[in-house]
Design brief:
Layout: E1 2-6, E2 16-19, E3 22-27, H1 32-38, E4 39-44, H2 53-56, E5 60-66, H3 75-84, E6 94-99, H4 105-124, H5 137-157
Antiparallel strand pairs: 1-3, 2-3, 4-5, 5-6
Length: 164
């Protein structure tokens, strides 16, 4: 997996995630066509907007993906997905994504696939490990000098305690 940091994104094939004011592009080779071979869809009637069409059309889409049986990832990546997405995976090891935002079944299928790709990429993302650093000598000296100046100011403000 390749991770790049950029300020602007021109390509529509990458997924955007904003972390700490920067965009991280996860350029993993997961294509929708490869995922479609391993994914099953279940449809049902959806609530919400759509008028009378809601009562007769099955626009709600439930995407089901078997993580353990996937051929797209190696065992280490599968374990990482299972470890990072425990609330999305049921007792049988199936990852479920439910979408009912759009009025058409096709758009809900597309949106659920996009959600699945984002979930997988976020689960496989390994954050950069922070290296502990020591403050520079000049910054330490600057801090101590400012503390000394501040203490001198306060010492000069004190009265001598004698009355004239």
């Amino acid at each position: 997996m390749k991770i790049c940091r950029v300020n602007q994104i021109n390509s529509s094939s990458f997924v955007k995630n904003q972390v700490a004011g920067q965009f991280i592009i996860l350029a993993m080779e997961i294509s929708k066509t490869d995922l479609l071979k391993e994914v099953k869809f279940r449809t049902s009637r959806s609530g919400g907007k759509g008028g009378q069409n809601v009562n007769k059309a099955s626009s709600k889409v439930e995407l089901i993906w078997d993580v353990a049986a996937s051929n797209l990832f190696d065992t280490e990546q599968k374990q990482q997905i299972l470890r990072k997405l425990p609330n999305r995976i049921n007792a049988f090891g199936l990852l479920q994504v439910i979408t009912e935002e759009e009025r058409s079944q096709y758009l809900n299928k597309e949106r659920s696939l996009e959600k699945l790709i984002i979930l997988i990429q976020n689960a496989l993302h390994n954050p950069k490990i922070r290296k502990a650093s020591k403050p520079k000598r000049s910054s330490i000296e600057k801090r101590l000098k400012s503390k000394q100046l501040q203490s001198l100011k306060k010492i000069n403000r004190r009265s001598s305690g004698q009355f004239d």
